[in-house]
Amino acid sequence: MDNHKEKTELENVADFLFEVGILAKTPRSGFFFLGSGEQSVAEHINRTCYIGYCLAEMAGDVDTGKVVQLCLFHDISESRISDLNYVHQKYTERFEHRAHEDLTASLPFGDKMKALIDEYEERESKEARLAKDADNIEFILSLKEQLDIGNERANTWLPATVKRLKTEEGKNLAERVLTIDSDAWWYGDKEDEWWVSRNNNK
Hints:
Number of strands: 0
CATH class: Mainly Alpha
Helix content: 55-70%
Shape: globular
CATH superfamily: Hypothetical protein af1432
């Protein structure tokens, strides 16, 4: 008797949602080599989406929603192949294409997801190039954060990462990122009396 039961579409969607949860537990392995900092793949994807949104709005001539979707799925295969940094990639064969095929095959909207992944990988559209720049700028931001707390090795990694940028929007944003302190958004005016008294007269 064959007890095999075909999964429903909703079960496949539920499986996918459980799968992407592992991205929050999958470390970005480059930080091991950097010597400081830590980040999950999910954290990387999250900020990459915000960067992609900003770049798309700065460009003004692209589909912002498309850019954000490309960012959302750009590292989706790492739920299955993990994060392989540049050293690992020298000695490891990556089967991202197979992971993408298997991951999307069972989903009712898998063809749309696969089309987004393919567009990102091909880099032919401006949306895809902006999404890739967002991916690299996220790493630039992470390196700048580590540099600002004293890891000088991060400074030696930055030039090669900046050279990967392809769009004018990405290059301009990265240039500005590297000129400001990573804590300027909350601790910009260090002479502000707030940091001493919090406006409390007691």
